[in-house]
């Protein structure tokens, strides 16, 4: 009876652990951010599926891409991940039972789940790697089950090795082979027979992988033997670390430890276990009668290991980079702004999304310097950086401005590295509708119709292809058409791009504000003043940032014509207060910095401390995140 109660409480602890893991994955990791970060492609149909049949591990990739679609829905993605974790646990449990492993057997089943959740904390972790390892666990479990039924181990190994290679890839084959070899050593009492099986498995694995690489599949040398990770674009390429490698080789490592225990260390461990049992106090009465020191230690170790693993692998700053873009994509502008301002570490992606968010809330000029604009004009015009990882942001930027041809160009750029990316496929539907290219819009809608995540979008815009007057009455499409510049060719000069938009529609306030901001950020106040009079079209009262730039211009040119401009007293007090503080510190900006922090949201502070013309901060070539 005691054994049954003990077992029941262990499985109860497992269920509680899985519930806590579900809450952690849903609310902290947030699967929708994994989807948003990687945009795994998936469309229904034989043509798409057939592309996964021509390389080893393709079927695992297809399964992963399909399951990853559920990440889009948040908690449903958590259920998918939790289901994978439960399968890890069950397969691990039955594998250990086949080893007759009794020492810490229940402890081991938590290890792959803890490592999987830790890996998911990195938003570039490809889920397919987890699927490939899971398939190894399942293959070993099924192999051991059939072996117990009396089937020939050599024949079984040949069948399973070939299958796991094709379904999960070369790296999975290697892990499977090592595990089976160690398990055979664990089972066998005949050293000679074990060595024969070991040599056979090693040779078969090597020769099979070599033959497949040379004569069957068109794969790179890196993919021929040990590859677990898929080929990914550099900007979302996962960099494996120690915990990932432990996760990949967790099953052979557990098998090795059990082998060492049963063959070498058994008598020492048994002696220690007997001592623990002898001196472990047990509550003999009441509902807690099975609480012993080993059981309490087991719970404490699993809880502690999970806590320290998760807390040391989760990076809030990296999450905020994705979260800011996620909120902007879903047009939750205030949340995007909140994420940006809450993060104390500068990042160009957060900067770009902050700028887009304040632009779409109507607080562009009022809030611009609330975030440190360390990259200056590069954070205003994203394609000024010319990095492929910014292609979606560039497309969004020009779409917001109404420069549709350039938005379309960057959507195509994005699809070259992230094919079937529904975010950009939706964009191409919209740009083609704006250009009255209904054939082009139909082509992309047909692709989107094969992805269940785009169902609502397809249902909304498919009628536009049948009744084109719907597009003519769509407010968003009408607005974008009114903003289209006369020339579809993009100037290399930033100010000319924005001027093209103003020339088409002189009431385009957004283009005007971006034009003036480009001059302000590059400290070209002469050009700013040339366009200053146009401000009367848009503002009854000058924005503070324009007043600060105007005061800076008048101060630098030593102009005495301040009275002709209606500059507010608040802006004057702020400007001269800044100058006074600098004077009190003998012009030493480093000495004055602490006193000037209260002006951190002003143009004066930007020019003095944050402008890249002062800091000499530049992005590393070809990398949108290194400075």
Q: Averaging pLDDT over every residue, what do you get?
A: 88
Largest sheet: none
Poorly predicted ranges (pLDDT <50, ≥5 residues)?
279-291
Shape: elongated
Q: Specify the number of helices.
A: 33
Strand fraction band? under 5%
Folded structure, characterized:
With 627 residues, this protein is mostly helical. It has a domain at 2-313. It has helices spanning 2-29, 31-38, 46-50, 58-68, 75-98, 105-108, 111-120, 127-148, 153-168, 170-187, 191-216, 242-248, 250-279, 293-313, 316-329, 333-342, 348-361, 364-367, 391-401, 404-417, 422-434, 438-448, 455-466, 469-473, 475-483, 494-504, 509-521, 525-530, 544-556, 569-584, 589-596, 603-610, 612-615. Helix 15 (316-329) runs parallel beside helix 17 (348-361), helix 21 packs antiparallel against helix 22 and helix 30 (569-584) packs across helix 31. The chain is elongated and about 100 Å long. It starts with a helix and ends in a 12-residue tail after the last helix. The model is unreliable at 279-291 (pLDDT under 50).
């Amino acid at each position: 009876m005691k054994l049954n109660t003990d077992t029941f409480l262990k499985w109860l602890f497992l269920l509680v652990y899985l519930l806590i893991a579900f809450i952690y994955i849903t609310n902290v990791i947030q699967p929708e951010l994994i989807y948003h970060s990687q945009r795994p492609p998936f469309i229904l149909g034989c043509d798409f599926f057939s592309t996964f049949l021509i390389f080893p591990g393709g079927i695992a990739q297809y399964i992963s891409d399909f399951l990853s679609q559920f990440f889009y829905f948040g908690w449903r993605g958590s259920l998918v991940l939790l289901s994978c974790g439960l399968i890890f646990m069950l397969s691990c449990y039955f594998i250990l039972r086949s080893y007759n492993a009794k020492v810490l057997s229940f402890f081991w089943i938590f290890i792959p789940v803890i490592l999987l959740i830790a890996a998911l904390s990195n938003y570039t972790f490809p889920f397919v790697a987890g699927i490939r390892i899971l398939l190894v666990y399942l293959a070993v479990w099924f192999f051991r089950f059939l072996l117990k039924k009396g089937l020939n181990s050599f024949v079984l190994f040949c069948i399973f090795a070939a299958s796991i290679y094709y379904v999960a890839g070369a790296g999975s084959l290697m892990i499977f082979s090592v595990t089976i070899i160690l398990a055979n050593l664990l089972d066998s009492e005949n050293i000679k027979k074990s060595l024969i099986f070991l040599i056979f498995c090693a040779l078969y694995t090597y020769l099979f992988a070599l033959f497949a690489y040379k004569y069957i599949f068109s794969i790179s040398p890196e993919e021929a033997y040990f590859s677990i990770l898929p080929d990914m674009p550099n900007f979302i390429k996962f960099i494996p670390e120690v915990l990932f490698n432990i996760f990949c080789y967790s099953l052979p490592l557990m098998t090795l430890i059990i082998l060492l225990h049963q063959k070498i260390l058994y008598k020492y461990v048994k002696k220690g276990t007997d001592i623990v049992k002898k001196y472990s106090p047990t509550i003999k009465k009441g509902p807690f009668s099975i609480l012993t020191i080993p059981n309490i230690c087991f719970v404490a170790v699993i809880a502690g290991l999970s806590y320290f693993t998760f807390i040391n692998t989760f990076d809030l700053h990296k999450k905020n980079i994705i979260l800011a873009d996620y909120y902007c994509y879903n047009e939750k502008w205030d949340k995007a702004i909140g994420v940006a301002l809450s993060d104390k570490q500068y990042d160009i992606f957060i900067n770009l999304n902050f700028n887009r968010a304040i632009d779409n809330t109507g607080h562009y000029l009022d809030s611009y310097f609330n975030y440190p604009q360390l990259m200056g004009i590069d954070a205003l015009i994203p394609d000024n950086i010319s990095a492929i990882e910014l292609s979606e942001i560039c497309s969004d930027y020009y779409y917001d401005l109404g420069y549709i041809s350039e938005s379309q160009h960057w959507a195509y750029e994005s699809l070259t590295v992230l094919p079937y990316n529904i975010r950009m496929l939706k964009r191409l539907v919209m740009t083609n509708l704006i250009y009255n290219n209904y054939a082009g819009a139909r082509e992309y809608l047909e692709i989107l119709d094969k992805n269940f995540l785009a169902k609502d979008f397809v249902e909304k815009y498919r009628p536009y292809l049948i009744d084109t007057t719907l597009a003519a009455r769509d407010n968003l499409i009408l607005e974008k058409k009114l903003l289209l510049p006369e020339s579809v060719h993009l100037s290399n000069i930033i100010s000319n791009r924005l001027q093209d938009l103003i020339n088409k529609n002189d009431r385009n306030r957004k283009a005007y504000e971006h034009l003036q901001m480009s001059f302000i950020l590059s400290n070209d106040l002469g050009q700013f003043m040339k366009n200053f009079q146009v401000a009367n079209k848009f503002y009854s009262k000058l924005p503070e940032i324009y007043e600060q730039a105007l005061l800076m211009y008048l101060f630098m040119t030593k102009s005495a014509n301040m009275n002709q401009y209606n500059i507010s007293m608040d802006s004057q007090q702020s400007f001269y207060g800044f100058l006074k503080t600098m004077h009190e510190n003998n012009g030493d900006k480093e000495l004055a910095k602490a006193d000037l922090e209260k002006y951190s949201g002003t143009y004066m502070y930007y020019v003095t401390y944050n402008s890249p013309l002062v800091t000499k901060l530049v992005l590393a070539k070809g990398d949108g995140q290194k400075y």
